[in-house]
Amino acid sequence: MSASKDKKTRQEQAGIGKPRTAREIQQRKEERRSNILYATIAILFVVVAVITITWKSGIVQRKATAVTIKGVNYSSAEVDYYYRSTYQNFLSQYSSYLSYIGLDTSKNLKDQTCPMDTEGGSWYDYFMDQSLTKMSSIHALCDAAAADNFTWNDDMQSQFDKAMSSLSSTVDTYNSTYNSSLTVKSYLKAVFGSIMTQDVYEEQLKLSILAQAYSDKYTNGLTYTTSDLTTAYNEDPNAYDEVDYESIRIDGSVQTAADSSASGSAASSSAASSSAASSSAASSSAASEPTDEEKAAALESAKELANSFYSQYQSGASLSDLAKGNDLATYTGGVVGTYSDNVLMNWLFDSSRKAGDSAVLADEDNSAYYVVVFSSRYRYDYNTVDVRHILIKPETSTLSEGDDGYEEDVAQKKADAQKKAEDLLAEWKAGAATEDSFAELANKNSEDTGSNTTGGLYEHVYKGEMVTEFNDWCFDKARKSGDTGIVYSESTGYHIIYFVGTDLPYWQVQVTNALQTKDYNDWYSSVTKGYDATQHSFGMSFVN
User: Fold this and answer.
1) 530: Cβ–Cβ under 8 A, 6 or more apart, which residues?
2) How many Å from the N-terminal Cα to the C-terminal Cα in the chain?
3) CA distance 349 to 360
4) Helix 76-94 and helix 123-147, axial crossing angle in degrees, nearest 10
5) Model's pTM, two decimal places?
6) Segment holding 488, helix H or strand E
7) Which of 77, 246, 424, 518 registers the highest number of CB atoms within 10 A of its CB?
C-alpha cells in the first residue's frame, strides 16, 4: 500500500476529513455562513461608525453639491454663504419694518409667505432666488474677467485684507460685549450656520471682490464727450429737468358719511359744492360699492370745488390758505417736481409752459382735480465737487440710555473721536500735506467702508447728496482746491475733508449716469446670459 493511500485509510478510520453524516455536512455549511455573516456585520459596523463620525463632523453636509452653474458645482456651504449674506443684509436694512412686511424671524422662513414674491413663494424662496442670482452673476463676471486676463491685484488684496481685519474686529467687539471667547471660525459658524468654514468664507469673498472690480473696470471705461451728453439731454430733457410749482389736489372719490361730513363742515368757502359731496357720500354709505352715478357725482363735486378754489386764487387768495381745513384738499408747495407720466406732470413739463401759468386739471382716472400754478423749469447747471475725507466715528457706549453715567460716557467718546480727527489732520499738515498723503492717511484710518480703499475719494458730489454739515462745507462759495476742515454730523461722526476741486455740471453727471446705466445693463445682460443655477435637492436641504 502506498503512503498516500495509507494516510487516507487512517483518516477515514479516525473520522478525520469529510463529515460522516448529512447532519454534519449541514452543520459545517451553517458554520461557514455564520462566519461570513459575522465578518460582514463587523465590516458594516465599521462603515456605519465612519459614516456617523463623518456626518457629525459636517463634511457631508458642507461638501454636498447644492447648485451647478455653467458646469461648476457649488457646495451647500458655498450656497449658504450667499443665502445667509442676503438674509442678514435684508435684516440690517429693514429691521424696523419686519412686522409691516410680514416677516417673523422666530419662525421658519419656509413656512411664511413672502408678499414680495410674485409667485406667492415663501421668504426662503425670496432670499434664495436673490442669492442664486448673485451667485450666477459673480460666476459669470469672474469667467469674463479670466477671459479678459483681468486677475487679482494689490488693490483687491487690500480690500480683502481690510474685510478680514474688519471681521476680526467685529469678533473682538462681540467677545468684549458678551463676555465670550469666539474665534473667527466659530463666529462664522454662529452667523452662517454650522456648515460654514473660514476657507469657504474667504474664497467666496475673494470671488465677490474680483467680480466687483471687473464690473467697476467696465463701468469706469464708459466715457462720453460733452457732445454725447448734450445730444442725450436734448433727446429727453424731461428725464433731467425739474420744476417748481404749487398745487391743490381735490379728492373726487366717493367719501364715507363721516369723511364727507368733516369735509363739508371744513369747506366753508364752497358750501354748495361741499353739500353736494356730502349728499353723494351719504347715499353711498348704505352700499359697499359705490355706483357709477355716485362716482360721477363725487367727481363733479370735486370739479366744482376746484373751480371755486381757482376763482378765489385768481382774486388774490393763496392756494395754501384755500386748502386749509378741507379734508378733500391737499396742498403741495415749495418742493421740486421730477417728471412722471401723469396729468399734473405732463401739464407742468409742457414745453410751452411759462412762469405764472395756472389751470384746473381733471384727473378722472384717479378721481381727482388739480388747481396748479407753474413757477419755473430748470436743469442743474451748478458744478459738482470732488472731495476726499476720513471718517472717525465715536465709539458706541457700552451703557444703556438711562444708565448712570451714560451721557458722560457718550460725551467722552465723542471728545475722543474729535481729538483723533484733529490729531490726524495735524499729522497730515506736519507731513507732505499733499492730496496723495491725505489719500494714504484715509486708507489707513477712515472708517467709511465706501471710500477707505480709494483714498477717501468721492467724485461728482452733488448738492444734498451728503449729510448737511458735509454738504454745506463742500458747497461753500469760498471753497478752493486744497482746503481742509473737520465737520461733525450727529448721524455719522467726524469728517476730515480735503477739497479736491469742482467737476462736471450736475446735469452732465445725471446724463452720464443714465448712459452708463444703460450701457452697463446691456453689457451685464450679455455677460450673464446662460448662467443659470440648477439646484440639487440633497445639497440644498442643508441650506437654511
Assistant:
1) 70
2) 83
3) 16
4) 120
5) 0.72
6) strand 484-489
7) 77
